[in-house]
Amino acid sequence: MSSHSSSHSESQYPADMWVLPNAQRMSWDVGGKTRSIPSLYKLVLIATGVLAVLGVVGFFMRLSADGFSANGHGPWGYYASAFAYVFLITGAAPLVSVAFRITKSHWRRSISRIAELFAVVGVLNVILYIPLIFILPSINNPNFGAGVHGELVIRRTIWMEVPFGAPHLWNFLGLLALAVTSLAILWMSATPDMAEARSSATGLRKLKYNLLSGHWYGTGRQWNRQKANLAILGALYFMTLIFVQFLIVSDYAMSLIAGWKDSILPPLYTVTGFQSALSLILIIAFVMRRWGGYREYIGISPFWAASKIQLGLTLLWTYHLFAFFITFWYGRLEVEQNLLRYLLFESYGPIFWANLLFIFFIPFFILMWNPIRKSDWGPALAGVSILVGSLLFHIRMFVGAFNAGDIYDLGLSSVPPAVFPDIWDVFMVIGIIGLAAFLYLVAAKVIPILSIWEVKEGALYQSKRRLFHGEYMVLAKPE
Amino acid sequence: MAKRPILGLFNDANAAADAGDGLKSAGVSEKDYDFLTDAPYPEGAFGEREEKHRLYIYPFVGAVLGLTSALLLTTMSQMAYPLVTGGKPIISLPPMAVISYEGTMLGAILFTVLGIIFESRLPNLKKGLYDTRITEGYIGVLVNAEETQHDRVADVLNQAGAVDVKRQS
Description:
The complex is a heterodimer of chains A (479) and B (169).
Chain A: H1 23-35, H2 39-66, H3 77-102, H4 112-116, H5 119-135, H6 168-197, H7 203-213, H8 220-252, H9 265-291, H10 301-331, H11 334-345, H12 349-367, H13 370-373, H14 377-402, H15 423-444, H16 452-461, E1 462-467, E2 470-475
Antiparallel strand pairs in A: 1-2
Helix pairs in contact in A: 1-16, 2-15, 3-5, 3-8, 3-9, 3-14, 3-15, 5-6, 6-7, 6-8, 8-9, 9-10, 9-14, 10-11, 10-12, 10-14, 11-12, 12-14
Chain B: E1 3-10, H1 13-25, E2 33-36, H2 57-80, H3 93-119, E3 139-146, H4 150-160, E4 164-167
Antiparallel strand pairs in B: 1-3, 1-4, 2-3
């Protein structure tokens, strides 16, 4: 080690790269933060609540104007986009906690609960899906009969022989399974923290904590089972999530454009979900650190570590987009050329370029710089751009798919025009996003947004030690 | 005579581990004492017995049942409505894959959640012996012993450096 080595505070690392929180004070402090509702928080709650109300207004206005008609699914394109956007991001978010817990990444501790709290939005996803059951056109062509040419008896979907319940029942059960699993993960993970809070809580909050965590005392047996349960549920959640994402994007995007056969779209959709979910978590962590009073619990290290994955996912997104593009571009069938002109270059061309700018170019040029990755604001800023790009991606894919003409045609024989939102579409999109945010904000005041036990566990394993002239983080790895 | 709990509180993890050794030496069965902590300590940190579980059985059984149900559903549907699609055999695996996978996952998830509830012995409305100082980092050593043994157990806990010893009132 060079004699010029110095402590972290003097070297290339920010002073608060790693934080060593006071474990004794943490329960009391975080419990207090969970119970208090500052005026700014109230303001954001009201704002998201107002957006949610606008969404409800937009939904009923659209319903009264167009109704639930499977053959007239076009007007619901923006609703489907907003649902898919919220489902994709909030569904993938708990995976950030699950995946990095399985890989035993210590930096994840302070952001685990931010990810797990999105389980409450999983319930909203199930409810938001219900109208889409009625909107999705029948797989069997209702107009097919003798003398009909150039149309399919059964449109091309992943449900090849249209088995019992397909697609609605299986899509619904998949979403329900995700909601149940993510809530079980949240409950398992939050039980020790709620148990800690039950002695200081009063009234309804005490009753709720007693109900949800009354059995918890922190015995060796309980910790052992909690660890195993989180691992099992995490693995099941991952395996189900990818599958449900595949169902949603196949049924509500790909199968609605005649002749669109693409094996790249489901993985592209999944990568968009991982990229967007990680970005949203980093934005929330940034807000908590800057304005939420959590600076002593959330250091820079989660941002630095997660931003490398964020950069990797950004590159992976572009790789998938290019794979999608080049297959169709070289294929040169009429349907493939029309699809490229429709979704990428003509009808939705401006949205595509904006999508590419926000989801790739801007985050790439932010995240490629190590000093920016080594900050809290850099990954959060890239995250904002990614979320905007992801919304544009969803509009392009789902509004495009919902308005692509005859779905029982053999292929996309012309290039339909783009459909722009009317006022009720705008209300529905901002309303669905607002409602998801509102639920999350309420949940963060019920369950601590910081995983107290996990941060305490981390504190057991880490300390700062001197080595020659420098001071370094020492991390124990018991397994 | 029924066993009742007695709790020793330690502000030092080493002292709690010493209490465990002391209890073992005093002839208290390993099944009769446990360490209460506010965060998971590495397994064996207090010299405690190895905890084993059979939680993996639940998702496995659920997955097998789910897969079986899904295969039965798809096979019987195809046999009940024998439509030749795309020139493929009536019973072919690719169209069954989606529902088979989902059935497997649904079964595994359902049984896992039920297994968690069962293994956690929920609902558990009985209040156990606890001290809120454990949430501040103290270690609790909870011993289940016959009441006649409580004084001896308290001595062991105190000798190991317990800052407080509590009995259920």
